[in-house]
Amino acid sequence: MSAAEHRPFDHRTLLVVSTNYAPEMTGIGPYATQLAEHWAASGARTQVLTGMPHYPAWRVDERYRGAWRRRETREGVSVYRRRHYVPSRQSALRRAAFEVSVLAHGLLAPPPGRPDAVVSQMPSLAGGVMAARIARRHRVPHIPVVQDLMGAAAAQSGIRGGGRAAAVAAAAERYALRGAALVGVIHESFVPGVTALGVDPRRIRLVPNWTHVAPPSAERAATRSRLGWREDTPVLLHSGNMGLKQGLDVLVEVARLAPDVRVVLMGDGNQREALRELAGSLPNIDFVPPAGTADFTDVLAAADVLAVTQRASVLDMSVPSKLTSYFVSGRPVVASVAGEGGTAEEVRRSGAGVLVAPEDPAALLRAVRALAADPAAADALGAHGPRYVARHLGREAGLARYDDLLTEALGEARPDAPGGAPRDAQGRPRR
Q: Is the peptide bond prior to 415 cis by the omega test (within 30 degrees of 0)?
């Protein structure tokens, strides 16, 4: 029975706090959007407190420039946008100014009314703190979902001044998480970090991200021709945010080492211009804007190899959301990441890629050439991705886990639970 049919949250008022939301198409924005729209379809009066669209370009969308506050209705969801500072370049000080501006304006002008529960998406410190304060003010459950650990990110990502910021970020995370009714994490590798912030492990629930894009539909050869990619030239594609933690200079070095390989960086981010400068006049590297929703996975599927990269220091603070889209495309993934981190574990679990040492362009290039030299093996490896998505990353199953999380926090029984008993976020009846 679908959520819309039994409307489990009818007459409930739910507040989702997420710095990112539609029309942003990458990062956590699509997850916050689909979650809020799902709950609106489930009968809830759903509100979203968010910022002005700015990610991954770290520039405010031109349709929102100059706006101080804005209220929109999108697919039955009341969206309250608040203006905030958007740094074009990243440093610990600029990131702090961003977070403070989000927090101050959000607390100054929260959505009207009293919610029954507050759910926050937390790579944003401000979003987590703001949601915790709103929930405490109204004495309702707060349910933060950890997509990134910002304290660890400050220490591991290489951002200027990050070491000094890590303790402050961890303190904000501790404030947001310790008083929560339940805490969701998108990957089990986050559990030790969340526990270290003072959260009882019994209150942690696993709520993995789902794939939010459609499978490819166009002919691969036709897409390559449209993009100007020659059939006899291997294409290594990275899609998504171009930030510090990605360590994308390794792909620039691959292009420098291998004139016979075309490296494509598709997306935007605060390191884009620095990467362009590093690439100089290399003829075999392209910087292209994000593909539109209609042909995004067609572009991914047209590449020979998809790259996910992280700095060697990134271990337990992030699992890239791009992986769910990569797996849908059916192309093999080469992950230049620390072997003990959550990203590496997800690639291993999917069976759809290979791991190489981080920040090692020669190792990455060897893996790309091996896959390009054996197209049948590359196709077979990539084919594991859609199967993994079908088994574990479906949208319906992902949203159902959030329904369970919310139901448990509200102390209610879901209509489809055995005997009417409430269930935890893994679908098990609560004892």
A: no
Quote the CA–CA distance of 167 and 169 in Å, as a whole number: 5
For residue 201, with 0-12 CB atoms within 10 Å meaning exposed, 13-18 middle and 19 or more buried, which class applies? exposed
Flag whether pLDDT at 175 surpasses 50.
Answer: yes
Instruction: Please answer whether residues 352 and 388 qualify as being in contact, where contact means their C-beta atoms are separated by less than 8 angstroms.
Output: yes
Radius of gyration of the chain (CA): 21
pLDDT (tens digit, 9 = 90+) per residue, 299-331?
Answer: 999 999 999 999 887 765 567 889 999 999 999
Beta-strand (E) ranges in 207-249? 235-239
| Token digits of residue 250 | 């390794």
Q: Which residue, among 299, 304, 301, has the nearest Cα to 231 in the 3D structure?
A: 304
* pLDDT > 50? residue 92: yes
Residue 348 backbone phi and psi in degrees, to 5: -60, -45
- Which pTM was predicted? 0.83
| Contact yes or no for 50/81 (Cβ under 8 A) | yes
Average pLDDT of the residues of the chain: 89
Domains and CATH numbers, the chain: 3-210+394-420 (3.40.50.2000), 220-391 (3.40.50.2000)
* Higher pLDDT among residues 418 and 11, named by residue: 11
Closest listed residue to residue 342, CA positions, set 138, 194, 154 = 194
Contacts of 219 (CB under 8 A, 6+ apart): none
